[in-house]
Amino acid sequence: MRDRTDDDDVEGNLPKRQIALPLRNHRADTVPMSQNTQLFHDAQFASDYIDHPPRFMPGYREMHRLAAVLISERAPANAGVLVLGAGGGLEMKALAEARPEWTFDGVDPAAPMLAVASKTLGPLIARARLHEGYIDDAPAGPFDAATALLTLHFLPPDERRRTAAEVRRRLAPGAPFVVAHMSFPQRDTAQRAMWLSRYADYAVDSGISREDAERMRNTVNSDVPFLTPDEDMAILAEAGFSDVTEFYSAFTFRGWVGYA
Q1: Is 170 in contact with 59 (CB distance < 8 Å)?
Q2: Which positions fall inside the Methyltransferase domain (predicted)?
Q3: What residues make up the domain containing 58?
Q4: Can you tell me whether residue 10 is helix, strand or coil?
């Protein structure tokens, strides 16, 4: 990715590459998203959120390690990485700790989630810039890699395709795009229900109360526009990514890597 100048940084005493929040005042309905994403704009929910992903997503931390390996295959040692859905900061922290020379631009529409990300990163924030908004608010790049972890499943298919295409437009030729989110077979309502039951059961096995797990199951079932793995892979291909390959599969979650 290109070297940044001092003009790219906000004036003041912030560490280099950190951007003060909020950058912009976005309407929540700027981009079509599932209804339950409004929770991410609640400060208390945002504060509690970072405890949830490892309890609902099997192999959550290992998936971050896999992402680092996949990016390292193609990206330079000092890679600039675009992180879509950066709120909470968990993946940026994992990647920053794994690869000390990487820098990050993280984008998220929820200011409370970005505030949590800044806190999660701690001193690592010196290697990151946080942008409040959607993919259209991300820098033009070109980036050496991009990630969208637990993000694209909130978008309906057309917006998911458009967003993926905008990510590709910001990547250097051949740069990897690592994606992971809820995606599972849905031949009929019975098969869909089976997979969502496994989603809830895993959460209970991870220490979530049955009541909370069932509430989350019902919420995602009604509000999240899940696609099948084949449909998700097709969207990445239609957005212009080549050699799209599944690298991660755990109950209701899948992960892919494709190349700009």
Answers
A1: no
A2: 81-174
A3: 6-22+32-182+228-259
A4: coil
Mean pLDDT across the stretch 21-47? 44
pTM over 0.90: no
The CATH number for 75's domain is 3.40.50.150
Task: Render pLDDT for 112-146 as a digit per residue (tens, 0 to 9).
Answer: 899 999 999 999 999 999 999 999 999 999 999 99
Q: How far apart are CA 43 and CA 22, in angstroms?
A: 14
The residue count of the chain comes to 260
Q: Does 207 map to a domain?
A: no
Residue 251 zone, left/alpha/beta (φ > 0; ψ -120 to 50; rest): left
Confirm whether 15 is domain-assigned: yes
The pLDDT tens digits for 219-239 are 999 889 999 999 999 999 999
The number of angstroms, rounded, from the C-alpha of 160 to the middle of its chain's C-alpha atoms is 12
Give the closest residue to 174 by CA, choosing from 147, 145, 148. 145
Query: Whole-angstrom Cα distance, residue 59 to residue 65?
Result: 10
Total structural domains within the chain: 1
Residue 221 resides in a domain: no
